[in-house]
Amino acid sequence: MKGKAVRKYVFSAFVLCVLLMSVPAYATLQYTFDADTQGWTTVNDANFNGWQSSGGNPDGYIKATDKGYGSTWYFVSPSLGDMSSYKGGTLSYDINLMYKSGSYFDNDEVIIKSGSSSMSWAPTTAHEPGTNTWTTYSVDLTSANFVVSSGTFDGILSNVTAICIRGEYISGGDIEGLDNVKMTSAPVPLPLPILFLGSGLAGLAALRTRMLK
């Protein structure tokens, strides 16, 4: 019975370590706007209507109305600081075009700023969000997508002062809502001690099994 118990213990520890090694770790930054604006606002010709307690995807969201002055307006995040860990990850967000009076037009979708420096992403196929429905968009955080050198990309990500997400899609009057802004990092490599622990337990399990036969 003692040998059987030891084998069971070693096997269980081995399985646990294998599971730990097979699940990648991610860093995530998320704005759900379920309770407030979380520091977001707008820039250019929009009246920021602020936080809305219901009607989001789900629950709360933020909303703005076009003033019609001509300059494309954006939803703007608070300063985020060093976001280098999100290089190679993904930025996603939900947009709701709640009212439109005019036609769609193209522009940069996402602008990431670092002081006076910035980089922008414009999708290959222009975004045309549906009316009164939530549409999810996403972009991989790579220098190629933001059309800058790797050095410029790394420099901007090292001190992000604002992320600007396009709110205006209509060359006329429009009202948009924003919800579920999410940044997810690329998979984070597991620390070497965990990898060594897994391989060590694998060897221990094999050795213990031979000894108890």
Characteristic key phrases:
213 residues; alpha+beta; Jelly Rolls; 2 domains; 6-stranded antiparallel beta sheet; 5-stranded antiparallel beta sheet; 3 helices; 11 strands; glycoprotein; Laminin_IV; transmembrane
What does this 3D model show about the protein?
The strands form two sheets. Strands 1, 3, 4, 6, 9 and 11 form a six-stranded antiparallel sheet that branches. Strands 2-5-10-7-8 form a five-stranded antiparallel sheet, with helices on one face. It has three helices and eleven strands. The chain has two domains: 1-24 and 190-213; 34-188, Jelly Rolls. α1 runs antiparallel to α3. Helices cover 23% and strands 32% of the residues. The protein is an alpha+beta fold and 213 residues long. The chain crosses the membrane at residues 190-207. Residues 1-27 form the signal peptide. This is Laminin B (Domain IV).
